[in-house]
Protein: Protein CLP1 homolog
Organism: Micromonas commoda
Amino acid sequence: MGDDAPNAGTQTHYLNKEEEFRVEVKIGTSVKVTLTDGTAEIFGAELPKGTPVTLPGGKHAVFSWHGATIDVLGATELEYVARDTPMTQYLNLDGVLEERRKAAAAAGAAGDDGFASDGPRVALVGPTDVGKSSIAKILTNYAVRKQWAPLFVDLDLGQGGITCPATIGAVPVDRPIDAEEGVPLEMPLVYFAGDTSPGNNPDLYRYLVERMAAMLDARHASNPAARAAGVVINTMGWVEGQGYKLLLHALDALKVDNVVVVGQERLHSELTRDFRGKRVGGDVPGEGTPVRVWKLNKSGGVVERSPEFRRRCRDQKIREYFYGAPGAELQPHSQTLPFGQVSIFKVGGGPRAPATALPIGQQSSSDPLRVTTVAPSMSLLNSVLAVSHGRSNADLLSSNVAGFIFVTEVDMRNGRFTFVSPSAGELPSRNLLAGSLKWIEMP
Ligand SMILES: Nc1ncnc2c1ncn2[C@@H]1O[C@H](COP(=O)(O)OP(=O)(O)OP(=O)(O)O)[C@@H](O)[C@H]1O
Protein backbone atom coordinates (compact mmCIF):
# COMPACT_ATOMS: atom_id res chain seq x y z
CA MET A 1 0.00 0.00 0.00
CA GLY A 2 1.19 3.32 -0.30
CA ASP A 3 1.44 6.67 -1.78
CA ASP A 4 0.04 9.75 -0.17
CA ALA A 5 -2.70 11.83 -1.73
CA PRO A 6 -3.64 14.31 -3.04
CA ASN A 7 -0.90 14.66 -5.62
CA ALA A 8 -0.04 16.89 -8.52
CA GLY A 9 2.85 16.84 -11.01
CA THR A 10 4.20 13.55 -12.34
CA GLN A 11 4.36 10.60 -9.95
CA THR A 12 5.96 7.28 -10.85
CA HIS A 13 4.40 4.08 -9.51
CA TYR A 14 5.88 0.59 -9.66
CA LEU A 15 3.46 -2.33 -9.86
CA ASN A 16 4.61 -5.86 -9.10
CA LYS A 17 2.99 -8.88 -10.71
CA GLU A 18 -0.80 -8.93 -10.09
CA GLU A 19 -0.87 -5.57 -8.34
CA GLU A 20 -3.32 -2.78 -9.01
CA PHE A 21 -2.92 0.99 -8.85
CA ARG A 22 -6.21 2.54 -7.69
CA VAL A 23 -6.89 6.19 -8.21
CA GLU A 24 -9.72 8.65 -7.66
CA VAL A 25 -9.89 11.69 -9.90
CA LYS A 26 -12.12 14.65 -9.06
CA ILE A 27 -15.21 14.90 -11.27
CA GLY A 28 -14.72 17.59 -13.90
CA THR A 29 -10.92 17.10 -13.94
CA SER A 30 -8.65 14.47 -15.46
CA VAL A 31 -5.17 12.99 -15.07
CA LYS A 32 -2.85 11.34 -17.59
CA VAL A 33 -1.37 7.88 -17.12
CA THR A 34 1.57 6.63 -19.16
CA LEU A 35 2.86 3.07 -19.13
CA THR A 36 6.64 3.37 -19.30
CA ASP A 37 7.60 -0.27 -18.67
CA GLY A 38 5.97 -3.72 -18.52
CA THR A 39 2.30 -4.34 -19.26
CA ALA A 40 -0.88 -3.04 -17.60
CA GLU A 41 -4.58 -2.76 -18.30
CA ILE A 42 -7.53 -0.62 -17.22
CA PHE A 43 -10.64 -2.78 -16.76
CA GLY A 44 -9.24 -5.23 -19.30
CA ALA A 45 -8.12 -2.65 -21.91
CA GLU A 46 -4.35 -2.78 -22.43
CA LEU A 47 -2.42 0.43 -21.83
CA PRO A 48 -0.27 1.36 -24.81
CA LYS A 49 3.41 1.81 -23.95
CA GLY A 50 4.68 5.38 -24.00
CA THR A 51 1.36 7.04 -24.91
CA PRO A 52 -0.41 9.10 -22.23
CA VAL A 53 -3.99 7.99 -21.58
CA THR A 54 -6.49 10.44 -20.07
CA LEU A 55 -8.44 9.28 -17.03
CA PRO A 56 -11.55 11.41 -16.53
CA GLY A 57 -13.09 12.24 -13.14
CA GLY A 58 -14.07 9.03 -11.32
CA LYS A 59 -12.48 5.96 -9.81
CA HIS A 60 -10.06 3.89 -11.86
CA ALA A 61 -7.80 0.85 -11.53
CA VAL A 62 -4.61 0.09 -13.48
CA PHE A 63 -3.86 -3.62 -13.08
CA SER A 64 -0.72 -5.48 -14.10
CA TRP A 65 -0.46 -9.24 -14.59
CA HIS A 66 3.32 -9.24 -14.98
CA GLY A 67 4.55 -5.96 -13.45
CA ALA A 68 4.66 -2.39 -14.77
CA THR A 69 5.92 1.13 -14.25
CA ILE A 70 3.45 3.96 -14.77
CA ASP A 71 3.68 7.74 -14.65
CA VAL A 72 0.66 9.70 -13.46
CA LEU A 73 0.43 13.38 -14.36
CA GLY A 74 -2.07 15.63 -12.59
CA ALA A 75 -3.83 16.00 -9.25
CA THR A 76 -5.58 12.97 -7.81
CA GLU A 77 -7.86 12.75 -4.80
CA LEU A 78 -6.66 9.37 -3.60
CA GLU A 79 -4.22 6.81 -4.89
CA TYR A 80 -2.68 3.57 -3.65
CA VAL A 81 -1.33 0.24 -4.85
CA ALA A 82 -3.30 -2.88 -3.86
CA ARG A 83 -1.93 -6.42 -3.78
CA ASP A 84 -5.20 -8.24 -3.12
CA THR A 85 -7.49 -8.28 -6.12
CA PRO A 86 -10.11 -10.73 -7.45
CA MET A 87 -8.63 -10.52 -10.96
CA THR A 88 -7.64 -14.21 -11.07
CA GLN A 89 -11.28 -15.13 -10.41
CA TYR A 90 -12.39 -12.85 -13.26
CA LEU A 91 -9.76 -14.36 -15.55
CA ASN A 92 -10.92 -17.89 -14.72
CA LEU A 93 -14.49 -16.98 -15.60
CA ASP A 94 -13.23 -15.54 -18.88
CA GLY A 95 -11.54 -18.91 -19.53
CA VAL A 96 -14.87 -20.74 -19.14
CA LEU A 97 -16.63 -18.24 -21.44
CA GLU A 98 -13.85 -18.55 -23.99
CA GLU A 99 -14.36 -22.32 -24.20
CA ARG A 100 -18.06 -21.71 -24.89
CA ARG A 101 -17.27 -19.24 -27.66
CA LYS A 102 -14.87 -21.63 -29.33
CA ALA A 103 -17.35 -24.52 -29.10
CA ALA A 104 -20.12 -22.28 -30.47
CA ALA A 105 -17.97 -21.13 -33.39
CA ALA A 106 -17.01 -24.75 -34.17
CA ALA A 107 -20.66 -25.88 -34.05
CA GLY A 108 -21.67 -22.94 -36.29
CA ALA A 109 -18.90 -23.76 -38.76
CA ALA A 110 -20.15 -27.36 -38.87
CA GLY A 111 -23.57 -26.07 -39.93
CA ASP A 112 -25.31 -26.51 -36.58
CA ASP A 113 -27.69 -23.59 -36.08
CA GLY A 114 -29.16 -24.88 -32.82
CA PHE A 115 -28.34 -23.79 -29.28
CA ALA A 116 -24.86 -25.38 -29.51
CA SER A 117 -23.79 -22.54 -31.80
CA ASP A 118 -24.77 -19.90 -29.21
CA GLY A 119 -21.89 -18.22 -27.45
CA PRO A 120 -22.30 -17.29 -23.79
CA ARG A 121 -24.88 -14.75 -22.69
CA VAL A 122 -23.43 -13.43 -19.47
CA ALA A 123 -25.11 -11.02 -17.06
CA LEU A 124 -23.40 -9.25 -14.18
CA VAL A 125 -25.86 -8.85 -11.32
CA GLY A 126 -25.62 -7.49 -7.82
CA PRO A 127 -26.45 -4.49 -5.66
CA THR A 128 -25.12 -1.03 -6.47
CA ASP A 129 -21.42 -0.37 -6.14
CA VAL A 130 -20.03 -3.89 -6.31
CA GLY A 131 -18.19 -3.44 -9.60
CA LYS A 132 -20.72 -4.93 -12.07
CA SER A 133 -20.03 -2.48 -14.87
CA SER A 134 -16.28 -2.75 -14.34
CA ILE A 135 -16.39 -6.57 -14.55
CA ALA A 136 -18.67 -6.34 -17.59
CA LYS A 137 -15.98 -4.20 -19.24
CA ILE A 138 -13.21 -6.60 -18.21
CA LEU A 139 -15.03 -9.65 -19.65
CA THR A 140 -15.91 -7.77 -22.84
CA ASN A 141 -12.35 -6.50 -23.27
CA TYR A 142 -10.82 -9.94 -22.68
CA ALA A 143 -13.08 -11.33 -25.42
CA VAL A 144 -12.19 -8.46 -27.78
CA ARG A 145 -8.48 -9.06 -27.16
CA LYS A 146 -9.05 -12.61 -28.43
CA GLN A 147 -10.63 -11.22 -31.64
CA TRP A 148 -14.29 -11.71 -30.75
CA ALA A 149 -16.80 -8.87 -31.09
CA PRO A 150 -19.31 -9.54 -28.31
CA LEU A 151 -22.42 -7.47 -27.82
CA PHE A 152 -22.25 -5.21 -24.77
CA VAL A 153 -25.67 -4.57 -23.26
CA ASP A 154 -26.40 -2.08 -20.52
CA LEU A 155 -29.70 -2.33 -18.68
CA ASP A 156 -28.87 0.19 -15.95
CA LEU A 157 -30.97 3.32 -16.49
CA GLY A 158 -29.14 5.15 -13.71
CA GLN A 159 -25.68 5.64 -15.16
CA GLY A 160 -25.91 5.61 -18.96
CA GLY A 161 -23.20 3.04 -19.65
CA ILE A 162 -23.63 3.37 -23.42
CA THR A 163 -25.01 6.83 -24.18
CA CYS A 164 -27.18 8.99 -21.91
CA PRO A 165 -28.73 7.91 -18.60
CA ALA A 166 -32.43 6.90 -18.71
CA THR A 167 -31.71 4.50 -21.59
CA ILE A 168 -30.96 0.85 -22.11
CA GLY A 169 -28.62 0.04 -24.93
CA ALA A 170 -26.61 -2.55 -26.82
CA VAL A 171 -23.53 -2.17 -28.96
CA PRO A 172 -21.19 -4.63 -30.67
CA VAL A 173 -17.68 -4.11 -29.31
CA ASP A 174 -14.81 -4.80 -31.69
CA ARG A 175 -12.12 -2.75 -30.01
CA PRO A 176 -11.42 -2.54 -26.27
CA ILE A 177 -13.60 -0.27 -24.15
CA ASP A 178 -10.99 2.14 -22.83
CA ALA A 179 -11.00 4.87 -20.19
CA GLU A 180 -10.84 7.67 -22.76
CA GLU A 181 -13.44 6.72 -25.32
CA GLY A 182 -15.69 4.34 -23.41
CA VAL A 183 -17.91 2.05 -25.40
CA PRO A 184 -17.49 2.35 -29.21
CA LEU A 185 -20.56 4.09 -30.51
CA GLU A 186 -20.71 3.33 -34.21
CA MET A 187 -23.93 1.33 -34.15
CA PRO A 188 -25.61 1.53 -30.77
CA LEU A 189 -29.13 0.27 -30.31
CA VAL A 190 -30.63 2.57 -27.70
CA TYR A 191 -34.10 2.69 -26.16
CA PHE A 192 -35.22 5.65 -24.11
CA ALA A 193 -37.09 4.95 -20.86
CA GLY A 194 -37.21 8.65 -19.97
CA ASP A 195 -36.37 8.09 -16.31
CA THR A 196 -33.29 7.05 -14.38
CA SER A 197 -35.24 4.48 -12.35
CA PRO A 198 -37.33 1.63 -13.79
CA GLY A 199 -39.56 1.78 -10.70
CA ASN A 200 -41.48 4.76 -12.08
CA ASN A 201 -42.71 2.80 -15.09
CA PRO A 202 -41.79 -0.89 -14.74
CA ASP A 203 -44.09 -1.89 -17.63
CA LEU A 204 -42.14 0.35 -19.98
CA TYR A 205 -38.83 -1.04 -18.70
CA ARG A 206 -40.02 -4.62 -19.28
CA TYR A 207 -41.33 -3.70 -22.71
CA LEU A 208 -38.03 -2.11 -23.77
CA VAL A 209 -36.01 -5.08 -22.45
CA GLU A 210 -38.21 -7.39 -24.55
CA ARG A 211 -37.67 -5.21 -27.64
CA MET A 212 -33.95 -5.39 -27.04
CA ALA A 213 -34.12 -9.19 -26.63
CA ALA A 214 -36.01 -9.53 -29.93
CA MET A 215 -33.42 -7.42 -31.77
CA LEU A 216 -30.64 -9.47 -30.22
CA ASP A 217 -32.22 -12.76 -31.34
CA ALA A 218 -32.70 -11.38 -34.86
CA ARG A 219 -29.06 -10.28 -35.00
CA HIS A 220 -27.82 -13.67 -33.88
CA ALA A 221 -30.05 -15.52 -36.33
CA SER A 222 -28.41 -13.70 -39.24
CA ASN A 223 -24.85 -13.40 -37.96
CA PRO A 224 -23.12 -16.62 -36.79
CA ALA A 225 -19.92 -14.79 -35.75
CA ALA A 226 -21.89 -12.42 -33.50
CA ARG A 227 -23.82 -15.38 -32.18
CA ALA A 228 -20.65 -17.25 -31.18
CA ALA A 229 -19.07 -14.14 -29.63
CA GLY A 230 -22.05 -13.87 -27.26
CA VAL A 231 -23.32 -11.09 -25.07
CA VAL A 232 -22.13 -9.36 -21.89
CA ILE A 233 -24.91 -7.64 -19.96
CA ASN A 234 -24.58 -5.10 -17.18
CA THR A 235 -27.72 -4.96 -15.04
CA MET A 236 -29.05 -2.40 -12.58
CA GLY A 237 -28.23 -2.48 -8.87
CA TRP A 238 -31.85 -2.65 -7.68
CA VAL A 239 -32.10 -6.29 -6.62
CA GLU A 240 -34.84 -6.33 -4.00
CA GLY A 241 -38.63 -6.63 -4.24
CA GLN A 242 -39.80 -5.31 -7.58
CA GLY A 243 -36.17 -4.77 -8.62
CA TYR A 244 -35.56 -8.52 -8.26
CA LYS A 245 -38.65 -9.31 -10.35
CA LEU A 246 -37.48 -6.93 -13.08
CA LEU A 247 -34.06 -8.57 -12.94
CA LEU A 248 -35.54 -12.08 -13.33
CA HIS A 249 -37.64 -10.84 -16.23
CA ALA A 250 -34.58 -9.35 -17.97
CA LEU A 251 -32.47 -12.51 -17.46
CA ASP A 252 -35.29 -14.57 -18.88
CA ALA A 253 -36.07 -12.28 -21.82
CA LEU A 254 -32.41 -12.03 -22.84
CA LYS A 255 -31.93 -15.81 -22.41
CA VAL A 256 -28.97 -15.35 -20.10
CA ASP A 257 -27.11 -18.62 -19.51
CA ASN A 258 -24.35 -17.35 -17.21
CA VAL A 259 -25.64 -15.30 -14.29
CA VAL A 260 -22.70 -13.77 -12.46
CA VAL A 261 -23.53 -12.49 -8.99
CA VAL A 262 -21.07 -10.00 -7.59
CA GLY A 263 -20.66 -9.40 -3.88
CA GLN A 264 -23.93 -10.63 -2.36
CA GLU A 265 -24.38 -14.06 -0.87
CA ARG A 266 -28.17 -13.71 -0.47
CA LEU A 267 -28.78 -12.73 -4.07
CA HIS A 268 -26.59 -15.61 -5.17
CA SER A 269 -28.64 -18.12 -3.22
CA GLU A 270 -31.95 -16.61 -4.40
CA LEU A 271 -30.87 -16.82 -8.03
CA THR A 272 -29.43 -20.32 -7.59
CA ARG A 273 -32.82 -21.38 -6.24
CA ASP A 274 -34.80 -19.63 -8.99
CA PHE A 275 -32.65 -20.95 -11.83
CA ARG A 276 -32.28 -24.53 -10.59
CA GLY A 277 -32.81 -26.91 -13.53
CA LYS A 278 -33.46 -24.07 -15.97
CA ARG A 279 -32.18 -24.25 -19.54
CA VAL A 280 -32.19 -21.68 -22.32
CA GLY A 281 -32.09 -21.88 -26.09
CA GLY A 282 -33.59 -25.33 -26.63
CA ASP A 283 -36.75 -25.98 -28.62
CA VAL A 284 -38.02 -28.86 -26.50
CA PRO A 285 -38.03 -29.36 -22.71
CA GLY A 286 -34.75 -30.74 -21.40
CA GLU A 287 -32.83 -29.38 -24.39
CA GLY A 288 -30.75 -26.19 -24.40
CA THR A 289 -27.92 -24.78 -22.32
CA PRO A 290 -28.24 -25.12 -18.53
CA VAL A 291 -28.15 -21.75 -16.77
CA ARG A 292 -25.12 -21.43 -14.52
CA VAL A 293 -25.11 -19.07 -11.57
CA TRP A 294 -21.65 -17.88 -10.53
CA LYS A 295 -20.42 -15.92 -7.56
CA LEU A 296 -17.57 -13.43 -7.87
CA ASN A 297 -15.91 -11.42 -5.12
CA LYS A 298 -16.27 -7.69 -5.03
CA SER A 299 -12.97 -5.91 -5.56
CA GLY A 300 -11.68 -3.93 -2.56
CA GLY A 301 -11.17 -1.05 -4.98
CA VAL A 302 -14.88 -0.53 -5.54
CA VAL A 303 -15.99 2.18 -3.20
CA GLU A 304 -19.51 3.18 -2.42
CA ARG A 305 -20.59 6.27 -4.29
CA SER A 306 -22.73 8.79 -2.43
CA PRO A 307 -26.02 9.84 -4.06
CA GLU A 308 -24.35 13.20 -4.77
CA PHE A 309 -21.34 11.53 -6.44
CA ARG A 310 -23.68 9.37 -8.53
CA ARG A 311 -25.63 12.44 -9.60
CA ARG A 312 -22.39 14.12 -10.64
CA CYS A 313 -21.28 11.00 -12.54
CA ARG A 314 -24.65 11.05 -14.33
CA ASP A 315 -24.25 14.75 -15.18
CA GLN A 316 -20.72 14.06 -16.42
CA LYS A 317 -22.12 11.31 -18.67
CA ILE A 318 -24.65 13.72 -20.20
CA ARG A 319 -21.97 16.39 -20.57
CA GLU A 320 -19.73 13.86 -22.35
CA TYR A 321 -22.55 13.01 -24.73
CA PHE A 322 -22.76 16.63 -25.90
CA TYR A 323 -19.17 17.83 -25.43
CA GLY A 324 -17.13 14.62 -25.72
CA ALA A 325 -14.77 13.24 -23.08
CA PRO A 326 -12.74 15.69 -20.96
CA GLY A 327 -10.01 17.15 -23.12
CA ALA A 328 -11.91 16.55 -26.38
CA GLU A 329 -14.19 19.60 -25.84
CA LEU A 330 -16.31 19.02 -28.94
CA GLN A 331 -18.46 21.94 -29.95
CA PRO A 332 -22.11 20.99 -29.72
CA HIS A 333 -24.42 22.74 -32.17
CA SER A 334 -27.14 25.09 -31.13
CA GLN A 335 -30.34 25.49 -33.16
CA THR A 336 -33.68 27.20 -32.70
CA LEU A 337 -36.89 25.68 -34.06
CA PRO A 338 -40.54 26.67 -33.87
CA PHE A 339 -42.49 24.19 -31.73
CA GLY A 340 -44.70 23.70 -34.78
CA GLN A 341 -41.87 21.95 -36.60
CA VAL A 342 -41.41 19.15 -34.07
CA SER A 343 -43.68 16.69 -32.30
CA ILE A 344 -42.90 15.98 -28.67
CA PHE A 345 -44.23 12.83 -27.01
CA LYS A 346 -43.95 11.02 -23.74
CA VAL A 347 -44.68 7.44 -22.77
CA GLY A 348 -46.95 6.54 -19.89
CA GLY A 349 -48.52 8.67 -17.26
CA GLY A 350 -48.22 6.90 -13.96
CA PRO A 351 -49.76 3.66 -12.79
CA ARG A 352 -52.57 2.14 -14.81
CA ALA A 353 -56.07 2.24 -13.30
CA PRO A 354 -57.48 -1.30 -12.93
CA ALA A 355 -59.68 -2.16 -15.92
CA THR A 356 -62.58 -2.85 -13.51
CA ALA A 357 -62.51 0.78 -12.43
CA LEU A 358 -63.14 2.02 -15.98
CA PRO A 359 -66.24 2.03 -18.18
CA ILE A 360 -66.29 -1.01 -20.50
CA GLY A 361 -64.08 -0.55 -23.57
CA GLN A 362 -62.32 2.50 -22.24
CA GLN A 363 -58.57 2.53 -21.83
CA SER A 364 -56.99 4.22 -18.85
CA SER A 365 -55.43 7.56 -19.76
CA SER A 366 -52.53 6.60 -17.53
CA ASP A 367 -51.75 3.37 -19.40
CA PRO A 368 -48.00 2.98 -18.75
CA LEU A 369 -47.34 2.18 -22.42
CA ARG A 370 -49.54 4.85 -23.91
CA VAL A 371 -47.78 7.46 -26.06
CA THR A 372 -49.18 10.96 -25.58
CA THR A 373 -48.35 14.36 -27.00
CA VAL A 374 -46.53 16.85 -24.80
CA ALA A 375 -47.71 20.44 -25.15
CA PRO A 376 -44.90 23.03 -25.37
CA SER A 377 -44.26 24.67 -22.00
CA MET A 378 -41.50 26.11 -19.86
CA SER A 379 -41.16 22.75 -18.14
CA LEU A 380 -39.21 21.55 -21.19
CA LEU A 381 -36.34 23.84 -20.22
CA ASN A 382 -33.17 21.84 -19.41
CA SER A 383 -34.81 18.62 -20.61
CA VAL A 384 -32.80 15.99 -22.42
CA LEU A 385 -35.05 14.77 -25.26
CA ALA A 386 -34.52 11.64 -27.31
CA VAL A 387 -34.71 11.92 -31.09
CA SER A 388 -36.79 8.89 -32.04
CA HIS A 389 -36.46 6.77 -35.17
CA GLY A 390 -40.21 6.19 -34.87
CA ARG A 391 -42.15 7.70 -37.75
CA SER A 392 -45.68 7.42 -36.55
CA ASN A 393 -47.28 7.79 -33.16
CA ALA A 394 -47.80 4.03 -33.21
CA ASP A 395 -44.17 2.99 -33.50
CA LEU A 396 -42.64 5.59 -31.19
CA LEU A 397 -42.84 3.17 -28.29
CA SER A 398 -41.00 0.38 -30.03
CA SER A 399 -38.43 2.40 -31.95
CA ASN A 400 -34.87 2.95 -30.90
CA VAL A 401 -33.46 6.43 -30.70
CA ALA A 402 -31.02 8.19 -33.01
CA GLY A 403 -29.58 10.49 -30.34
CA PHE A 404 -30.39 13.23 -27.88
CA ILE A 405 -30.86 16.98 -27.74
CA PHE A 406 -30.75 19.26 -24.76
CA VAL A 407 -33.23 22.16 -24.45
CA THR A 408 -31.34 25.34 -23.49
CA GLU A 409 -34.11 27.90 -23.99
CA VAL A 410 -37.90 27.93 -24.28
CA ASP A 411 -39.46 31.02 -25.85
CA MET A 412 -43.18 30.64 -25.27
CA ARG A 413 -43.99 34.15 -26.54
CA ASN A 414 -42.64 33.29 -30.00
CA GLY A 415 -43.49 29.60 -29.84
CA ARG A 416 -39.96 28.26 -30.31
CA PHE A 417 -37.16 26.57 -28.45
CA THR A 418 -33.39 26.38 -28.62
CA PHE A 419 -31.45 23.17 -28.17
CA VAL A 420 -27.99 21.73 -28.53
CA SER A 421 -27.16 18.52 -30.34
CA PRO A 422 -23.76 16.82 -30.69
CA SER A 423 -23.70 17.18 -34.47
CA ALA A 424 -24.62 19.94 -36.90
CA GLY A 425 -27.40 19.83 -39.47
CA GLU A 426 -30.94 18.54 -39.65
CA LEU A 427 -32.19 16.37 -36.84
CA PRO A 428 -32.53 12.78 -38.08
CA SER A 429 -36.19 12.98 -37.08
CA ARG A 430 -38.60 15.63 -35.81
CA ASN A 431 -40.23 13.18 -33.40
CA LEU A 432 -38.90 13.82 -29.92
CA LEU A 433 -39.45 11.85 -26.73
CA ALA A 434 -39.53 13.58 -23.37
CA GLY A 435 -39.17 12.05 -19.92
CA SER A 436 -37.99 13.31 -16.58
CA LEU A 437 -34.32 13.52 -17.58
CA LYS A 438 -32.98 17.04 -17.02
CA TRP A 439 -29.52 18.50 -17.08
CA ILE A 440 -28.33 21.81 -15.70
CA GLU A 441 -25.15 22.75 -17.47
CA MET A 442 -22.48 23.68 -14.95
CA PRO A 443 -19.72 26.07 -16.01
N1 LIG B 1 -10.64 -2.35 -8.81
C1 LIG B 1 -11.09 -1.09 -8.73
N2 LIG B 1 -10.31 -0.12 -8.23
C2 LIG B 1 -10.75 1.16 -8.14
N3 LIG B 1 -11.98 1.55 -8.50
C3 LIG B 1 -12.79 0.61 -9.00
C4 LIG B 1 -12.41 -0.76 -9.16
N4 LIG B 1 -13.44 -1.45 -9.70
C5 LIG B 1 -14.43 -0.56 -9.88
N5 LIG B 1 -14.05 0.67 -9.46
C6 LIG B 1 -14.84 1.91 -9.47
O1 LIG B 1 -15.88 1.78 -8.49
C7 LIG B 1 -17.06 2.41 -8.93
C8 LIG B 1 -18.22 1.41 -8.90
O2 LIG B 1 -17.93 0.37 -9.82
P1 LIG B 1 -19.01 -0.11 -10.90
O3 LIG B 1 -19.62 1.05 -11.62
O4 LIG B 1 -18.34 -1.15 -11.73
O5 LIG B 1 -20.05 -0.75 -9.90
P2 LIG B 1 -21.54 -1.20 -10.21
O6 LIG B 1 -21.78 -2.37 -9.37
O7 LIG B 1 -21.72 -1.37 -11.69
O8 LIG B 1 -22.34 0.04 -9.69
P3 LIG B 1 -23.83 0.53 -10.11
O9 LIG B 1 -24.73 -0.65 -10.11
O10 LIG B 1 -24.14 1.47 -9.02
O11 LIG B 1 -23.69 1.18 -11.45
C9 LIG B 1 -16.76 2.94 -10.33
O12 LIG B 1 -16.44 4.30 -10.21
C10 LIG B 1 -15.57 2.12 -10.80
O13 LIG B 1 -14.78 2.82 -11.73
About this structure: DSSP finds seven helices and 23 strands in the chain. The longest helix spans residues 87-109. The pocket of adenosine-5'-triphosphate is lined by residues 20, 22, 58-61, 126, 128-134, 156, 159, 237, 299, 301-303 (CB under 6 Å). The radius of gyration is 23 Å.
